[in-house]
Amino acid sequence: MSTETIKMAERYDRRKISDKVKKAMSNFYFNHFVQSERELKYTEIIYKKFKLIDNIKMLEIGAGTGGNIYFFKKLGLKWENIYANELLPDRFEILKTTFPNINLYEGDACEIEQDAKELFDIVFQSTVFTSILDTKFKELLAKKMWTLLKPSGIVLWYDFAFDNPSNKDVKGIKKKEIKSLFKEAKSIKFYKTTLAPPIGREIKKSYPFVNIFPFLRTHLIAVIEK
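The chain above was modelled as a monomer; its predicted structure follows.
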């Protein structure tokens, strides 16, 4: 493991025992609306980009325990075309047990073997890069993702753009930085999404009504085309 991956593991461990995180994860309304909103946008993006969904090969970087895997399977991807990477051993074990029919890479995503070069139509990351505080490591991971992507593929990105003053273990990533990580991209399209969590968690069922205002959204979905 590199120094940064060790530090990332430590940050995730701190989150596991955080009362704030546990409370946030138990907020059913907020979690439901956030997931539904971003999955709808992913669906629009993927159906617009690809004609045959069942032929797509997808890799998720930092898949956790597999929450996003269910979405890609429901979308129409075959089990054998779904690949997932996870750094943390405890999460990887859950991933392996829950999804025995997918392809798994354990450990540092930067060390995924060379035979995966240009293998994937979609390389997906969700709230991974904001947990990386080392600029050089972000550049290395972005380069690896780009190498794994087919010439006609896309990096599908979901992450927050603003720092969290109460959490020094994460750092927001704005459009400018995303563009700098993928300088070779043919095009990058951005979509603002996710109502600011302090607001969204408080208003519960009113989330869809308040979320009509783009300036209150804190996250970005990016479609980074090779």
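Strands lie at 58-61, 82-86, 103-106, 120-126, 149-160, 187-195, 217-225.
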